[in-house]
C-alpha cells in the first residue's frame, strides 16, 4: 500500500526539483527525504527517480504517480472538509497567508466578522508574498491565502491548488509633484507614454523575487526601457514617502494609494494606468468546501471596500 505522506514528498520533489529544497520546505533533513522516497520506490515496485550526481529527476512512472498523488491529496482535503462540516461548530487554528496591503486594508475587518460568527475559530495571519504561497499551501504551512497577479505577471497554474476571484484594483504611477504628467483619475492614458516620460528618473521597486518587483520591471520593459532602480522597498507607504522626497517614481496599486498617508497634496502626483492587480483566494484543491476556509472566504468578501472592482469587471 502506498503511503500518502511519501506521495506528498514525491509531489513536492516534482515541483521543487531537488531533495534539498523539499527538505528545507517541509522541515526534514535531506537524508530523511531520500530515505522516505526510497521506501516509496520499494512500495511501488519500480524506479520512480533517476539519480545523476547530486540531482534527481522523476522517471515516467514517477511522473505518472505524481498525477495520482494530486488526485489522492485532493480527495483527502474533501474528506477533511466533510468531517469538519459534520462537527458542531468551527474550532481550532486557521492559518491565513496575505500580502501586506491586504493584511492592512482587508484582513482586519474579515477577522472581526470571523470572531463574531465563529468565536472558537483561531485565525493566524502570516504575511506571505504571493510567490511563496503555493509552496506554503501544499506544504501545509497555510490553509488559505490571498494572492494577487498583475497584467504583466499572470499567475501560472499551480497543481494541487484552486483559486477564487476576489477583487480587482487599478494601478498608478506615483511621481514627485511637478515631475511629470498631471495626475489623471480616469483610465485611458497611454501607459507606455506615461512610463517613458520617467525613463531617465530613478525608480523605486519592491524587492527582487516578489511579484510587485516583476510587475514594475516588465511594465517598463513593455514601454521600451529598463528602469534604473535606486530603492527597493516592499511597503507602499514607505514607497510613497520616498517618492514625495524626490527619490524616484514607482508603480503602486489602488489599495497602496488609498490606505497610505501622504499622497496627493503631500508632494506626490498620481497618474492612473490602464493596468490592474487582481486578488484571489487560494487554497488546496478540494479544500474549498472546508467550513473554516469557506467562512474566511465569506468574511473576506464582505470586507472588500466598495470602491474596488468586482471579479470579472
Automatic annotation (TrEMBL):
<dbReference type="InterPro" id="IPR005119">
    <property type="entry name" value="LysR_subst-bd"/>
</dbReference>
<dbReference type="Pfam" id="PF00126">
    <property type="entry name" value="HTH_1"/>
</dbReference>
<keyword id="KW-0804">Transcription</keyword>
<comment type="similarity">
    <text>Belongs to the LysR transcriptional regulatory family.</text>
</comment>
<feature type="domain" description="HTH lysR-type">
    <location>
        <begin position="2"/>
        <end position="59"/>
    </location>
</feature>
<dbReference type="InterPro" id="IPR011991">
    <property type="entry name" value="ArsR-like_HTH"/>
</dbReference>
<dbReference type="InterPro" id="IPR036388">
    <property type="entry name" value="WH-like_DNA-bd_sf"/>
</dbReference>
<dbReference type="Pfam" id="PF03466">
    <property type="entry name" value="LysR_substrate"/>
</dbReference>
<keyword id="KW-0805">Transcription regulation</keyword>
<dbReference type="InterPro" id="IPR000847">
    <property type="entry name" value="LysR_HTH_N"/>
</dbReference>
<dbReference type="InterPro" id="IPR036390">
    <property type="entry name" value="WH_DNA-bd_sf"/>
</dbReference>
<keyword id="KW-0238">DNA-binding</keyword>
<protein>
    <submittedName>
        <fullName>LysR family transcriptional regulator</fullName>
    </submittedName>
</protein>
Amino acid at each position: 500500500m502506498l503511503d500518502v505522506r511519501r506521495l506528498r514528498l514525491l509531489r513536492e520533489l516534482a515541483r521543487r526539483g531537488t531533495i534539498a529544497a523539499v527538505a528545507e520546505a517541509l522541515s526534514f533533513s535531506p537524508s530523511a527525504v531520500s530515505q522516505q522516497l526510497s521506501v516509496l520506490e520499494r512500495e511501488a515496485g519500480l524506479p520512480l527517480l533517476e539519480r545523476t550526481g547530486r540531482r534527481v529527476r522523476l522517471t515516467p512512472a514517477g511522473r505518472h504517480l505524481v498525477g495520482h498523488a494530486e488526485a489522492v491529496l485532493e480527495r483527502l482535503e474533501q474528506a477533511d472538509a466533510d468531517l469538519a462540516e459534520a462537527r458542531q461548530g468551527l474550532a481550532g487554528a486557521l492559518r491565513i497567508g496575505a500580502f501586506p496591503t491586504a493584511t492592512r486594508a482587508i484582513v482586519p475587518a474579515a477577522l472581526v466578522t470571523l470572531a463574531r460568527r465563529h468565536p472558537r475559530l483561531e485565525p493566524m495571519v502570516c504575511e506571505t508574498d504571493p510567490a511563496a504561497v503555493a509552496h506554503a499551501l501544499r506544504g501545509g504551512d497555510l490553509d488559505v491565502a490571498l494572492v494577487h497577479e498583475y497584467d504583466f505577471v499572470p499567475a501560472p497554474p499551480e497543481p494541487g491548488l484552486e483559486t477564487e476571484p476576489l477583487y480587482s484594483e487599478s494601478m498608478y504611477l506615483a511621481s514627485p509633484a511637478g515631475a511629470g504628467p498631471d495626475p489623471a483619475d480616469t483610465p485611458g492614458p497611454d501607459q507606455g507614454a506615461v512610463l517613458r516620460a520617467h525613463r531617465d528618473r530613478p525608480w523605486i521597486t519592491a524587492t527582487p523575487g516578489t511579484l510587485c518587483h516583476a510587475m514594475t520591471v516588465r511594465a517598463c520593459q513593455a514601454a521600451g526601457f529598463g528602469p534604473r532602480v535606486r530603492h527597493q522597498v516592499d511597503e507602499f507607504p514607505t514607497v510613497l514617502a520616498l517618492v514625495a522626497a524626490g527619490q524616484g517614481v514607482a508603480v503602486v496599486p489602488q489599495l497602496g494609494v488609498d490606505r497610505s498617508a501622504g499622497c496627493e497634496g503631500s508632494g506626490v502626483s498620481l497618474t492612473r494606468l490602464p493596468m490592474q492587480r487582481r486578488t484571489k483566494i487560494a487554497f488546496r484543491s478540494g479544500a474549498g468546501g472546508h467550513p473554516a476556509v469557506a467562512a474566511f472566504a465569506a468574511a473576506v468578501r464582505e470586507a472588500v471596500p466598495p470602491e474596488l472592482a468586482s471579479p470579472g469587471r
